[in-house]
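Reply to dn_fold:

You asked what the input looked like. This is it:
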Amino acid sequence: MLERHASRATRRAREFEAFVAGAAGRLLHAATLLTAESPDDNPRARRLLTLSLAHTYACWDGLHGEDPYDHARRQLATRFARAAWHHGVLGRSRPHPTSPLAPLTPQERLVLVLRLYEGVAEEQTAALLGLSPERVRAISHRATSALLHRSRGPAPAVTAAKATP
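and this is what came back:
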């Protein structure tokens, strides 16, 4: 009995290690986008990822065919939302100025990361965040517009051409 339990625990650990080896990079990048930190200095993103992976490991045996990446991503989004909206911890922190999502609010970053970076459907994003699909669509549109208008910069100065007689 003990041998069977030990072999199951070993198998579980190996499966989880393989999952982390394949998914941690992408999840860390998503967490870094969410926290709007620099990729080289991202302690909040690393903490967010660590907590999400710890929860995924705790639920590993109960996933029963569910994609562990989806579970970890859901945990990442939920933990970010809870910290940003309920506790204000991530919402008050200053984003890194070079982060592409720095000008966005935490909610806008979360919607864009889920929709555009992770490719989560609008309806799934809405269900995960407790919003209507229309609200997710509006947030996504507003955030995308803000990023597009910001990247254009000021319009070039128009100079009047002198008329030649």
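The radius of gyration is 21 Å.
Hope that clears it up.
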